[in-house]
């Protein structure tokens, strides 16, 4: 949400639309989730309600604390251990969708972070005893996961290079669904 | 440091057509350390390795192998250092088909003036260390890919080598055999205090290294692995 609010204040339904557009609708959001999240962000001082147009709908804008929080998020590699959804894929999709993020730097930081996990796993594999086959299988599963992620990052980087210089698509406009009009 | 590369620059061609393969790369490898170099094609990985091995002359910067700056030594001195101190492992093994495994391994020693009998003895020891002494009298064409790469590694470690340079050594091998080769390189560094540099595009193989550095467009852009300990830092700042 913070990423999408970075360039200008937006309505909740806009945020939902843009999130789905950026992540290819892989993780559909319902509008309730969007407003719950906005309320929580407002409580934490990361967004505030901006001037509404007098029609009852509230626009939200990002605060300075919110910008700091957002910068931290983009700068922090995702730990392999705890990934509720694929936060990394979401992070890259949003890094591309919003202006001003150095996407290749995000890719590079993630690559080195994942490489470090892969080194640690390889060390564990090396030190495991010959007979510990079930443990070795588990380590291998994690090694394959880390390896696949690095290959995917390489692939993303190559795709980014091919796309560099192509114009950013014009911002999408969204029709306000009738049942959301009154929500604030 | 066994290998100390400082501000290494390598430019091919001149003027508008100049290709900057490496642009001011620093890389130090300590005894017993294995460093993997990764990066997309054309990022300068192989150029870095050939400069480290004295096979290519940098445009600027220093390449110190065991304290000797390859960029200031004469051609013969570099060749001698290469024969005695530096071992090379290539993707396609580069074995001579007309020579047996032991003769291939003994070749660099013989070129350096060691008598045949002594060179053969050293070669058999090296083959023993990579676990294939029984293949000493076999020709490369009668061996599997994994066995041939072991012979190539034996050739790279024979005698008193201090620096092992490997360019995609697992590129032509299946994953199990490739992994065995990595284990061998790793053990070699751990047990004999050799410094190793491994160029690979394969993250799974790079992960065997103590440190993984990432090259892009001739510049080091990232590093993974433990930070150097305090002693190493002190040495570097000297």
From TrEMBL, chain B:
Keywords: ATP-binding, Nucleotide-binding, Transport. SUPFAM superfamilies: P-loop containing nucleoside triphosphate hydrolases. The keyword Transport applies. It comes from the Bacteria. One of its GO terms (cellular component) is plasma membrane. Residues 3-237 form the ABC transporter domain. This is ABC transporter ATP-binding protein.
